Amino acid sequence: EVQLVQSGAEVKKPGESLKISCKGSGYSFASYWIGWVRQMPGKGLEWMGVIYPADSETRYSPSFQGQVTISADKSISAAYLQWSSLKASDTAMYYCARGSRISSFDYWGQGTLVTVSS
Amino acid sequence: QSALTQPASVSGSPGQSITISCTGTNNDIGDYNYVSWYQQHPGKAPKLMIYDVSDRPSGVSNRFSGSKSGNTASLTISGLQAEDEADYYCSSYISSATVVFGGGSKLAVL
């Protein structure tokens, strides 16, 4: 059974750093794209970027380029989304998802709620 | 890149058919057959309903269908059921080799 399990909810202060994770199981992790999607409170889905774990090819939405870093460790079937300096506007639910192509995600993680507040 | 344009809300009665539109440009929907549709119930992760404009993943009801004409993609739900009440999002591959979502449409089953 394909599963994506994300790390737990985080509460951080502005300016702090953060790295959240997404661990895949039940499939060949390196052979599928992992994407990250943001959903701010009460708002829609936003495509942030993707990584192909086999070779770490990464693509970012222009809206998120330079704001976050996407990485992966195929040896432990995990992908990551990290911030070096959080802002209050980063408060959102973050989903990871799997796709054979970047254009569609067939399995999703349960989401990680990130709250940034002073 | 701008989000694809969807109606904020749509509604229908049980048993009816509804269509949700998703309008883009020549740089996304108009140029690529890589449109997907997702269903999201409150508090849940999105679920893939349609990919590559009109293909359904295994396990998705055939009441859901997708199409495209020019720069506009559409999701049609036939035989509307109470459980279909949810938010629906379209997405498309775009010319910058990334993907953009639509703003989302809230479906009410009256």
Detailed description of the structure:
The complex is a heterodimer of chains A (118) and B (110). By secondary structure, chain A is mainly β. Helix content of chain A is 0%, strand content 51%. In chain A, strand 9 (92-99) and strand 10 (107-108) form a beta hairpin. Chain B has strands at 9-12, 18-23, 35-40, 47-50, 64-69, 72-77, 86-93, 99-101, 105-109. In chain B, the strands form 2 sheets. In chain B, strands 1, 3, 4, 7, 8 and 9 form a 6-stranded mixed beta sheet that branches. Chain B has a 3-stranded antiparallel beta sheet with strand order 2-6-5, with no helix packed on it. Chain B is globular. Chain B starts with 8 loop residues before the first strand and ends with a strand. Classes of the chains: A mainly beta (118), B mainly beta (110).
At a glance:
Chain A has 118 residues and is mostly beta strands. Helices cover 0% and strands 51% of the residues of chain A.
List keywords for this structure.
heterodimer; A: 118 residues; 7-stranded mixed beta sheet; 11 strands; B: 110 residues; mainly beta; 6-stranded mixed beta sheet
Give the helix/strand layout.
The complex is a heterodimer of chains A (118) and B (110).
Chain A: E1 3-6, E2 10-12, E3 18-25, E4 33-39, E5 45-52, E6 57-60, E7 69-73, E8 78-83, E9 92-99, E10 107-108, E11 112-116
Parallel strand pairs in A: 2-11
Antiparallel strand pairs in A: 1-3, 3-8, 4-5, 4-9, 5-6, 7-8, 9-10, 9-11
Chain B: E1 9-12, E2 18-23, E3 35-40, E4 47-50, E5 64-69, E6 72-77, E7 86-93, E8 99-101, E9 105-109
Count of discrete alpha- or pi-helical segments spanning 4 or more residues of chain B: 0
Uncertain spans of chain A, ≥5 residues at pLDDT below 50? none
Q: Count of DSSP helices of chain A?
A: 0
Residues in helices of chain A, as a percent range:
under 10%
Tell me the greatest interface. A-B, 24 and 28 residues
Tell me the span between the first and last alpha carbons of chain B.
35 Å
Q: How is the biggest beta sheet of chain B arranged?
A: 6 strands, mixed
- Give me the strand/helix succession of chain B: EEEEEEEEE
* Rg over C-alpha atoms of chain A, rounded to the nearest angstrom: 13 Å
Mean pLDDT of chain A: 97
State the total count of DSSP E strands of chain A: 11
Shape of chain A: globular
Radius of gyration of chain B: 13 Å
